[in-house]
Structure formats: C-alpha cells, structure tokens
Design brief:
With about 350 residues, the chain is an alpha+beta fold. Helices cover about 50% and strands about 10% of the residues.
Length: about 350
Amino acid sequence: MIYRTPLYCRSFRCIAGDCRDSCCKGWEIDIDSSAYEFYQSVEGEFGERLRRSINDGSFILTEDERCPFLNEHGLCDIYTELGEDKLCRICSDHPRYFEWFGSFKEGGVGLCCEAAAKLILSSPFLLHEEEITFEEASGDYDEELMDLLLDARSEMFSVLSDESIPLDKALCRVLDIADEAQQYIDMPSAEHTGEYCGSALDAVFACFESLEPIDESWLPYIRKCRTMLGSAPAADSAHQPYLRRIALYIIFRYLLKSVYDGEVLGYAKFAVVSVIVISSLYRCRASVKGSCGFGECADIAKDYSKETEYCEENMEQLLKLFSTEAFFSSDILKELLGGI
C-alpha cells in the first residue's frame, strides 16, 4: 500500500508541557478497546487511579475540562508512569490524521495543534510517498471518480504552489476546477446562483457566529472581529505564504473525501472560505496590535481549525451552507478573494 504525507510531517514533534493550548484540555478523550483492556489490568495505586478516572469508555474530565492525567507541568502521567506505548489511540495519534482510499493511504498533522500549525505555515508543501506492507487495502469507491479527483487535486496543487500566480487568482482557479469536477458528479452543479445584496464578508462572519463554539472565548472573539472588518487595515502581503499553505493543507486533507460524499465543490469552498476568514482575522489583529507576526498568524489559524474542522457538526453545517447561501456562491467568494 502507498502511504502519502506532506514532507513536513517528518519534522513534527509534540511540545508537551510547552504547549499553551493543550489537546488534553476541553476535549472528550475516548479510550480504544485495547487501551481500555490494558488499563483494567494495571496494578497498584496508579491502576486504581486509572479505573476511577474512566466512565463509559472515556476519561472523566476535571471541573475545568482537563484530562485527569494532565499534571501541573503540562505532562501526561500515563506517559511518564507507563510509557508512550501505553497511551490510548487518540492520544498517541493526535494531531495526526489518516484516510484510507482503497489501495493507498494518506495522512498528515492537523492545523488545530500549536506545533503543527507553525510547521504547516512555515514549510513548503511537498508530498512524500512510501510503501507500507503492514496494512491491507480498504474502502470501496468509484475508481473513475477517484482518478478525476486525483487529477483535479493535482491541478489545484500545481496552481496553488506556483507563487508567480497571485493567491486570489490561484484560489479562483481552484473553485473553477472543483466546479468542473462537481458537474461530473451531479449535473448540474449543486451551487446557489444569484446576486447577494449587502456585505458578503459580514454575512460570512455572521455564519461563523452561528456555529457551535468549542472554546468559550471563540464566539466573543469572532463577534468583536466582525465589528472591525470595515476599519481593519488592508491585507499584509507577508501573510500570503501562510495563507497559501493553509489552502494546500485543506485541499490535501479533504478533497479526496468527496469520492465518498460527493462534496468536491464544498471542500474547495472550505479552503477558500478558510483563507478569506483567516486573512480577515489577521487584519483585525493588525488593527489592534499594529501588526500580526508569524506566531500570531499560527495561533489564529490553529484556533480557526479547532472551531471548524475539529467539530463534526460545524463541518456538516458549513458544507450545507456552502450550497444554499448566496454569499457562499463561487462568484461572491471570488469577489471576496480580492481582499486577502
């Protein structure tokens, strides 16, 4: 089986106690059956602590929504007491993600992680392939459709990676490529057509206000930024490489999923909308702070990722809105791209 990942994944390292937004806070932590069985067998005081901390297949979070094994130094007691190989699957894998497509597999590191976000924004997007022999093919799909999607994605990669093409133009082309592929899937294209009266960017932010927040600070932050959109400074050209790499990350991670759900245009729009919103958040930060440096750019992208792609309900809602709301039409999004 071929396993394909962005080359930068080889450089990923968890920063553990140095992480300011730990993945051990605010998330439900499910325990896989293998880890659960092992935890039931651990002897002594630590074994008793393990079993007291589990309910219905998950760790019981503390009152401030921390994993009960996240200590005061930001380290995991299971890791330090039992070893890295005794972590449950979700803790061992995160922020890595994996997708299986028949005879090949793809994976990467997710933007919602502080260390991964810095890696994604700072690294050229290059793919690495290797043969893995310990996994078998899985997942049935339309092979003709997969070939079309692979060709479409390859063209998107080529356009987005060509820095001689302005990012707004490259993303407009991404929408066109996705629209062509979508028409192959479900003639005619599942896309709202028509004009939109009013501020489309304000409508986009209003939409994000309506999503289910993961972090309690996110909704007030989005509301505040929405009020600043009209007065925020113009986009900083120094942010263009970061935004380009975010778009490449999203296209790589999501576009091939449409072989199963048919949402090729929806996933392309997610990449475009993400760039538009994150660019706007960079502008708002610059309006308050005078500038938005690399570290702040990575933090904003991380928070956005956490609130969108790491909430299944929010992703489902966004994909639905992309095909029903006029301000998410390809034509409107192309106009908004002029402001990034």
